[in-house]
Every structure is written in structure tokens, then in C-alpha cells.
Input
Amino acid sequence: MLVPANAAPPSQRGAASRPDVATDFRTLAQQHPWTCRKEASAQANAAGPAGEAECAWQERLRKQSWSWSEGAPSSCLSRQARWWNAAQAGLPPAAPRSVWDSRWSAQTLRFAAGGEERLLLLRRGSADQWLATEWRWNPNPRPATRRWQERRWKLLIEAAARHQQDMATASKSDAARLQPVFRRVLGARPGELGPDGLVLEAAGLCLRAGNPQPGQPKLALSYSPNDSRLEQRAAMHLQLSRQHPDAKWLTQFRMLDMPANLPSGAKFLATWVQGEELKSQLWMPAKSDAATVRLRVTTRLPRGQADTGVMLQAKQAVERELAAIAVQWAAIYE
Output
């Protein structure tokens, strides 16, 4: 189970004078550490070469660190997001994962994997440097030794929590409400949350899922699939065509096919290309008079390939992600 490291509140008395066991491995282990004999953690490639791994307690306690510059070459996802995801690789495939948020300047996470306790700390250092650390503890089978080690591990959790900063102010946007859905849709894939929604990779493309422009559709959309008429969908597409007169429509406004064994309301989708950008939007009407939840996924097509098979592949990838979001929304909220 994933648990924020600050779930164990640090002691307020004497915290300032106590040695920081999150940065002093010798103080944490209460012995001289040594270079680990086992192989380095698998997530080293996610952010570049790792520092030398240190071990203690008969190699039952392990610490490994990474660092990289904020000014590194940009890509779809930040190095922070890739490392954060890769560091959770030991979790079962179906287990929920924490997704990095671009608003974080320091974050911790602890979880158990394969009989080990793990603790992650990723924080922004000085001079635009990011510092990542992973600790692993394999409890000793001897009860007395395990209890002593557990007390030291708790001190580490408390020390790591003191480095963590509060999360940015929560948003009430549709993209913010969809964060639990985003995590389910991502699964074990890397992604990055932010104030505008989610960034992820699919089919070699960088997809950005966020809120469309403000405003609700002028035409009311039916929550019940049985109440959605062809005339209503045609009128909605006409409205979209007037809003985007230069769009090339790949999928006209239509109702999504939802799984037969999943009770849910109607979900609608449309996909179009404007210039070199492909856009696909999802509408999820709510029960009663609540506002329709809307989400738009955009991706930039390679230059000069807006009329090739690349466009079709992008359309399929984007609509596949939106269909998965619709299913998970229905599973969680409906």
C-alpha cells in the first residue's frame, strides 16, 4: 500500500537538534556503511546514472541516490516524473501508483514490495538540481533485532517527512476531479499531473489531457443513453463546427460504446485536427442538473504529417485514452 511518508508525524521536540538521518546514512544505521554488493536499482536509467549504493545491517538496509539538473533536455515528461514512476516498479502490476505532480518541489512515498519496506524522497536542491533517494529495508527475522531496526526506520520516515512541502492548492476543475481516474488509466505507465491536467505518452506521442475552454455546451446532453437522440448529436456537432470552422473532423460528435456490464450514463466524443494539432474531447453528462464533465486531449502531430497515417494512429491513441477515462469515471463515480 502506498503511504505518504508524513503519515507518521515527526516529533516536534528536539527535531532541530537531532541529526538528520535522511542525509546521514551512518547515523541512521548506527554503523559504518559499505558499498553494496548487489546490483543497482532498476530505476537508474530513468534519470541517469545513480550514485554508489550504500548498505548496512548485513545488506538489509540500502540507500541509493540520483541527481540531475533542471536544465536537462526537455521531453514529454520530466525526469522527476520518470524517476518517481520507475521507483515504484516493484509494486504488483494492478497496484495503484503515485503519479508525480509538477507542482511538487519535495515529496516522499513509502510502500512495501517483495517483502521489503521502501521509502522515496525526491526534492529540489540548490542551483536547479533535483535530488532523489531510495531506501530499502528488509526486516531481520530475529524479533529483537527487527524491533530495533523498525525504530530506526521510523526515525528515517519522520526525517524524510520534514523535507516534504505542502501540496499546491487543490483545484475544482474537471481535470482535478479526474485525478483518481487518471491514476487508474495510467496503471504502471509514467505520467505527470499538473494544474492543467495530465501529461502522458502513448503510441510515441505526447498527450496532454486537460480542461477545454470555459463554458458549457449550449445544448443539454442527456445522462441516460436511451434519451440521446441522433438529432441531438447532429445539432451538437453543428455547434462544434461553428466553434471550430477551420477544423478537419476525424470523428463527428458521437456517443461512446460503454461496456454492457458497467452501469453508466451516456458519454460523448469528437475528434478533429486544427493546423498540426489533433484534439479529442470527451463529454460526460451528470445526473440531475449537475454540470457536464468535459476533458480534452491534445497532441501535436509531426510537422508535415497532418494528412498521413500518423494522423490516424494519433486519433486511435487519443480516443483509446479517452475511452479508458470514460470507463474508469463510470466505475468510480457512477
Observations:
- The first strand starts at residue 34 and ends at 35.
- The CA atoms of residues 93 and 263 lie 26 Å apart.
- The chain is about 25% helix and 25% strand.
- The longest helix spans residues 309-333.
